[in-house]
Amino acid sequence: MINMKDVYKTYSNGVTALNGINIDIDQGEFVYIVGPSGAGKSTLVKLMYREVKPSDGTIIINGTDVKTIKERKVPFLRRQIGVVFQDFKLLPKLSVYENIAFALEVIEEQPRNIRKRVMDVLELVGLKNKARFIPDELSGGEQQRVSIARAIVNHPKIVIADEPTGNLDPETSWGIMRTFEEVNARGTTVIMATHSKEIVNTIKKRVIAVEDGLIVRDEQRGEYGYEV
Ligand SMILES: Nc1ncnc2c1ncn2[C@@H]1O[C@H](COP(=O)(O)OP(=O)(O)OP(=O)(O)O)[C@@H](O)[C@H]1O
């Protein structure tokens, strides 16, 4: 469902972030992307949701070629992909409920369906009782659970998370990981760029290691493989 072939990315300032990447990820997989700072992990995941465009090579996401996709079709691609960021990116003036409902309003979901879908997803992440709170009234872990809820409310086939536990303490991070595991258990593909050795070595999944824009390791139930 995610296929990258000979993918290169050079930014406009001349920095080459990816140097010939080949990846095949199937529906339902859980994949960690690891590697040193500046290795190209964020660039790799941003290519998957077409935040950046490849300089060369082919990227097929769910049957769509993201290099040749027409600009007006990009929103349809994005609907199939939920994205979770390190810094949550919630709208600060909207309530938890409204932050999640917004993701459905922009895709013109029928208003009568929105309430049930938002409450269902809040139940999944364990925040039904905080629907009326604004982000500032929540802990970091709760805010991240809201952002996961927002990413999955639309039932995307793929969830991409770039350092989702980077701003959270270890205990909170385990809770977030449980949520991602539940999302994955429902059949959603999860791709997670992370610097967390503890998480990768404890919750064993496929590990793709990137160094200097190249994949240097791709192992099922792999190890983090770097000293912290
Ligand atoms: N928008 C950009 N414009 C120019 N260069 C960029 C841009 N984004 C990233 N880079 C460069 O591309 C390289 C890879 O960056 P990237 O953010 O993908 O690495 P990373 O592995 O995610 O790093 P980290 O673990 O520190 O987040 C780095 O040299 C970085 O400076």
Specify the number of helices: 7
CATH class (first level) name of the largest domain:
Alpha Beta
Q: How is the main sheet built? A: 6 strands, mixed
Task: Give the overall pLDDT as a whole number.
Answer: 94
CATH topological fold name of the largest domain: Rossmann fold
Beta percentage is 25-35%
Which small-molecule species are bound to the chains here?
A: adenosine-5'-triphosphate
Categorize the overall geometry: globular
Structural class: alpha/beta
Number of domains: 2
| Shape-level CATH architecture of the largest domain | 3-Layer(aba) Sandwich
Number of strands: 10
- Across the major sheet, the strand order is 6-7-8-3-9-10
Distance between the termini: 32 Å
The residue fraction in helices comes out at: 25-40%
SSE topology:
Elements: E1 2-10, E2 16-25, E3 30-34, H1 41-48, E4 56-61, E5 64-65, H2 74-79, E6 81-85, H3 96-105, H4 111-124, H5 140-152, E7 158-162, H6 170-185, E8 189-193, H7 197-202, E9 206-211, E10 214-219
Parallel strand pairs: 3-8, 3-9, 6-7, 7-8
Antiparallel strand pairs: 1-2, 1-4, 4-5, 9-10
Helix pairs in contact: 3-4, 3-5, 4-5, 5-6
The structure holds adenosine-5'-triphosphate.
